[in-house]
Amino acid sequence: MNKIRKCIKFVEKYHKYFNTITGEQYLSTTKFISQFYSDFNANKIAYDLVTTNYRYQEQYADYSTEDAVIHLKQEWNKRTQVGNTVHNYLELYLKGILSKKNARIHQLTTAFDKLRLRVGTYLL
Questions:
Q1: From residue 78, how far is each of 15, 55, 75, 81 by CA, in Å?
Q2: Contact 90, 115 (CB under 8 A)
């Protein structure tokens, strides 16, 4: 299984996975899941949240609606970047490319290893 993983390459620019030996392309999880849901309309969802959800109305009470939407989308983008970074670290770690070089990566990979032990070896 490790040999198979090592020949799978992700091209972030195009968000595509492919097998470096066979050239076969794979769907990303995002692309696969998108087949079952409508597109995420960030503008509409952020607008709806800041205008109708009491939690967001309280949080953004001092903002104009437009500024609240912008701020909320910026927060989502920050969280997406953190998630992508964690995903990339774990993928490199699983491929044996990344070692536990610093305390933060060590903490992350140790937690990941504990999770894999709890749910089984098939967790990617």
A1: 18, 20, 5, 5
A2: no
Q: What is the pLDDT of residues 47-102, one digit of tens each?
A: 999 999 999 999 999 999 999 999 999 999 999 888 888 888 777 777 777 666 66
Per-residue pLDDT, 52:
97
Whole-angstrom Cα distance, residue 29 to residue 17? Answer: 10
DSSP string, 18-54: EETTT--EE--HHHHHHTTS----HHHHHHHHHHH-H
8 A C-beta contact, residue 8 and residue 18: yes
Q: Which residues does residue 18 pair with via DSSP β-bridges, in sequence order?
A: 9, 25
Please report the pLDDT score of residue 64 as a whole number: 97
Quote the strand ranges of the chain, DSSP E. Answer: 8-11, 16-19, 25-26
Note the pTM of the prediction, 2 decimals.
0.62
How far apart (Å, rounded) are the C-alpha atoms in residues 10 and 65?
38
